[in-house]
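Obj: model holo form, ligand = beta-D-fucofuranose.
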Amino acid sequence: MLRRAFFRCVASVGALAMVGLGSAGAQEPPRLRPKEHYTVGFSQPGSASPWRRAQLDSIRAEAIKRGDQLIYTDAGGSADKQVADVNALIAQGVDLIFLAPRDEKLLIPAVMAAKSAGIPVILLDRTVNPSLAQAGRDYVTFIGSDFVEQGRRTAEALTKATNGNARIVQLEGLPGSSPANGRRKGFEDFIQAHRDMTLVASQPADFERAKGQQVTEALLRVHPDASAIFAHNDEMAIGAMTALEAVGRTPGKDVIVVSVDGTRTALQAIIDGKLLATVETNPRFGPVAFATMARYARGEPIEPWVVITDRFFDKTNAAQFLDSAY
Ligand code: GYE
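Output (holo structure tokens):
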């Protein structure tokens, strides 16, 4: 019954858009009426990592603090499920959707469906392909880190630590996700200018610890002379360090490892001398996400990208930040 009503609603939105009465072609995202309390949707691509758990905790805490109602969906690592989740949030008539799109392209239909239904979307932590959907037109804004800069900073640290001479294995994040694309670009652009910084292998391990371990095991067999690993996030770096130790190589000595995120485990690995450095990706989005929503409701102009500034953790400061890490 509910299901049928939901499909009817989606179908009619589609029909309206086709005859030009929908708002899919509008030049700006739907407005948000100022209200005392909102019902906000939060669509997460998955929740199985310390980063995702910290993000969810932060969003939840801020919703509670403001007395807003939060409807949370967990796509369990599936872009298709995430599109369905967003459609379900639309059907429930939420005031606004916070969306952390798993994939740069596959979530475009979800962004457009929300726009057609008159529900503003704020992208959190991952963005979408700018040739397919734009901030200030299709969605309100993207709140997140500068991924290219993160990749550049890890490359710079690695180059310094290895005196510009390394045979590097890159563990890429989830293919099609904006952090994987950006980190890769920033890193590769930087090392290209350094003759002896050689990328010997690059393979996705999807931001997952177990895959980071498996992929590293396989790549070490083919490239036993690898002297550095750049992992697109800390979880894969932890997996890589386990793989190194399993073949009797000492991370931090035989192979220099760098990564991104700044999890507690990563900071501990820095203190233990196994990880060179990690560029922060702060998952605590709650305050900035809800403050941006409030600004939008007040009719203030919103910048297309609310840039999160990231700290840099290495052996000079890891101990200092360990207790506050997630
Ligand atoms: O760095 C990674 C997670 O989208 C910024 O996704 C986020 C990234 C984060 O899986 O660990």
